[in-house]
User: Fold this.
Amino acid sequence: MSPLETIQPLQWADLATLAPELTLVIAAILISVLDLLLPNKVNRNFTGVLSLAAIAVSLFFVIWKMTGMSAGADAPHAAQVVQLLGQSYRIDDFANLMKILFLSGTGLIVFMSLGSIREDEIQHKGEYYYLLLPAVLGAMIMASSGELITMYVGLELLSITSYVLAGLKKNDLKSNESAFKYLVLGSISSAFILYGMSFLYGMTGTTNVGEIGAVLAGNAANFEILLYVSFFLMLAGFGFKIAVAPFHVWAPDVYEGAPTPVTAFLAVVSKAAGFAILFRIMYNVYFQLLGGPQNNFGEDAFLAVLIVAAIAMIVGNAAALRQRNVKRLLALSGVANAGYMLVPIGVSMISIHASNFSELIFYLFAYLLMNIGAFAVVMAVSRAAGHNDVKGFAGLYYRAPYTAVAMTILLLSFAGIPLTGGFIGKVFIVLGAVQMHAYWIAAIMIVTAVISLYYYFGIIRQMYMRSDGEEREIKLTAPLGITIWVCAVATVAIGIFPNFVFQFINHFFSVSFDLFIQ
Assistant:
């Protein structure tokens, strides 16, 4: 019997468990009503403050639940999984760690936007702030989903709000074109994912990911062709969502056309949500097929993931070499970084263990800091220069030395230079691949990382060795400046003291890893 057929009604204790999600739902409704009722002359920055408060409260509830304080526990953390609505919604440590990442990233994006958004970029600020709440809610639902229908609901909630956010520059034809492209291609990718999920349901008669893996493990040989079809359909669909080559063609246009804070959200939260759902499906469904009798599907599937990762690293870095628009450059850099983050999933074809997730979540956190900090600098520079070209950074060190230094730290982290979070993240992923004897993918990671030095150092060269004849002043609001330096300092901190981050991840996740893959 399918878990959906035995759904128990929610109890008050269940509502307390869902406090992070309910906080965002209630806040989004209230803030949108306030924005609708108040006259236009009222400054809409208050909606940003309220949205930030809602995100902070939601983050508090996640951490509170995760550390066991909600149960009044004084003992060390113990592995536990709360399953609601017929096992369709799971509150486990994997979901909680991802929610911390989603909420932290969205909070930083909202904070840096306060007082920093140009009128010509986002005309309706209230809409921008409260639309971020259902968007991050969709990401949280994706991370906690225990069955395919719930995953798809979360995916579409995130996707639809992202389409709207990407098109907020309503009077910019180029932005309208990129938003329309994002809508069309995003809808097609969602159809691919849904079609792939339908094959899994047809083969197993259930939408629960744990049950799908268990059923297929004993019958894979009977459904081998359908398994390949379902896997590659979903790989293509999720490849679009995480902007990995060869499914990345939308990213440069959308990153350039969308308002810069929205671009940061797409680069960090939307991408991380795609990895969350991909990680859960891969490990709960397809890993169960590795080494099965008379079936090579499992090995082929995870090899395909590594091939896609390799293509993303090569294409992303190669295309960025000739890019002069900094937002498009960061989009292509994101394609390459998505390839790096696929490697821990791909090497699981050899061995599955908790460190696969540790490598992924560490790099996601470092990637969050690098991107949000970099896009915050882009906001300030593009406002002064009037464009998003790399040449806008010319002479930045002489106009705003502290901002230039912070941007240098972030770019060094992107490039994988020692003493930064990006370096540690790449090193651990490479070491994980080498440990599993996947030497070829480790070699591609190293070579493409070296190639990326050219375009990252191209921006640094502009800041220190080029001159801007017009001497445009760089103006930073307090939230924007704080965000830049929080990201820069945190990037160095996790690069120098990575063990603290890994200990935090492993403390919560390693003890519940067996529960995650059940």
Summary: Strands lie at 82-84, 89-91. Residues 23 and 340 are 34 Å apart (CA to CA).
